[in-house]
Amino acid sequence: MRSFNHAADKADGRAVRLAARSGALDGSTAGLAPGFVQGNLAVLPRDWADEFLRFCQVNPKPCPVLGVSEPGSPHVPALAADLDIRTDLPRYRVWRDGDLTEEPGDLLALWRDDLVSFVIGCSFSFEEALREAEVPMRHIELGCNVPMYRTNVATQRAGRFHGPLVVSMRPLRPADAIRAIQITSRLPAVHGAPVHIGIPEEIGISDIARPDYGDPLPVRPGELPVFWACGVTPQAAIAAARPPFAVTHAPGSMLVTDLKNAALAAF
Amino acid sequence: MRSFNHAADKADGRAVRLAARSGALDGSTAGLAPGFVQGNLAVLPRDWADEFLRFCQVNPKPCPVLGVSEPGSPHVPALAADLDIRTDLPRYRVWRDGDLTEEPGDLLALWRDDLVSFVIGCSFSFEEALREAEVPMRHIELGCNVPMYRTNVATQRAGRFHGPLVVSMRPLRPADAIRAIQITSRLPAVHGAPVHIGIPEEIGISDIARPDYGDPLPVRPGELPVFWACGVTPQAAIAAARPPFAVTHAPGSMLVTDLKNAALAAF
Q1: Checking CA distances to B212, which of A19, A82, A260, B193 falls within 20 to 30 Å?
Q2: What is residue B267's predicted lDDT score, i.e. its pLDDT?
Q3: Which pLDDT score is estimated for A11?
Q4: What is the pTM of this model?
Q5: Does domain A124-234 have CATH number 3.30.2040.10?
Q6: What's residue B5's pLDDT?
Q7: H or E element, residue A123
Q8: What is the CATH number of domain B6-121+241-258?
C-alpha cells in the first residue's frame, strides 16, 4: 500500500478518490477535502434498486439521494466526471442475505452488470456548515464518533424496505441548537433540519448514555440533545430486508464527490 | 361610541385604522385584518428619540423597527399612506416620568411638535405564520394572553435605555418547535427566531408557572417551552428610563398597517 500524504493529497474530492483508488487511502475520509460533499454509498441489484429508490423518496430526511447510477455502470457523472464506485471509496462492506461478509478495499472482483449505486447525503456536510458557524460539536472536540440511536419512529415502508428511523445526537446549548436548526434547514440534501430536540424518550430513546451505534457522549447541564436523521437508517433497512447481495461504505469511509458543500444550500 | 361590525370592518388595515379613528373600535386588534402587519407603538420626545433608535438598532430581536416618523409628524408613510398615529390605534398608554398616567382613546389633545413615533414589529405577525403552518399555540386555543418573562439576559444599553430582555413563551412539541424556529427565522422584522428553547432557568426564569406579564400557561409532558424576544422589552426600557413624556399602545391595541405579513419574509 502506498503512503497517503494528507497534507498534500486531501485538497479536493478528486485527490481523495485517486488516493482511495490507488490504495494509498484505506481509512476514514473525515476531515479530508474540506468543502467537498461526501456521501454514504448503497449498492443493490437492479431487482431491489427500484424499491430502494422509492424507500429513499418517501424518507428524504434519513435518505437524501445525491446521485444514482445506471444499472451496471460504476459511474455517477452528476457527482464527479471520473468517479468509479468500484474503487473510489477507501473501504467497503459487502452484505449477503443481510449479513456482513467482507470489508474489501475495492469492488473490482465483485462487480456485476446488474448493480445500481446510490449515493446519499451525509452529516459531514452539515457538520462543516455548523463548524463554520462556530457551533461547537463535542464528538469532534473529543475525537470520537457521533452517538446514534434506533428510535421508535418508523420509516415509511417501500416494498421490502422498512425499519426504524436512526438518528445522530449532538448536545448543544439552546442558542446553539436554534442556530443549528437554522443552518441545517438550509441543507435538505444532507439530512436537513433536526427531527427532534430535547426529549429523547418521546422518540423511544430510554437511555441517552447508551447509543446503538457510535460512541456515548455526555449531555451536560444547560444543554439539549439535538437529533438529526442519520444515514445509518437506509443501511439498517437494507440489513433488515436481507437482499442476497448489497454493498455499503465502511463506517467513516465515504465517497468524496466534486460537489461543494456550499452549493447544496437551499436558500 | 359607534358600533364596530367586526365581520364587515376588519377586512384590512385601513378599515381597522378608520374604526379606531372614529372611536368605533377601542379594544384589542388581535385577529383583525388577517394578513396585515400590526405593530407596537412607542412615542418619545425628540431629545429621547435618537437614543431610543440606537437602543432598537443594537437590540433588533426585541425591537425590530418597522417605521419611524419625522419629529412632530403623526404620519409614517412607509407603513400606510393615510396613517395618523394620534388616532389610529384603539387605545394608548401615556407615561410621565416612567409612571402610567392615562389610557386615552386618541392623542389629539396630547400631541406635540417634538414627538417621534416608533412602530416595532409584533408577535401577531409570526403567530399568523405559525397558525398557517398548523403549529398549535395554546394561548390562542385557550383565549388567553401569551405568558411573558423578564430574563437575566441584559439588553445592550444605549444612552438612558437599558433593561432586561423580556420574552414570550409558547409550549410546543419538539417537532413543532423545530418547525416554529424555521418559520420565525424567516421573519426577522417581527422578532425572528426564538432566543431560547427548553431550559428556562438558563435565562433566569425560575418558575415557568409565574410569568411577569400575561397569563400562565402549562408546559405539558412531551413539550418544550420556546421563548421569543418580546415587544414588552422596549416598553420596559422606556419605563426604566423614565422620560418625562412617552406614549405606547395599550396592551393588545396595536397599530394595524397596510403592510402584508407575507411580504415580511426574509427568504
Answers
A1: B193
A2: 85
A3: 84
A4: 0.91
A5: yes
A6: 55
A7: helix A123-132
A8: 3.40.1640.10
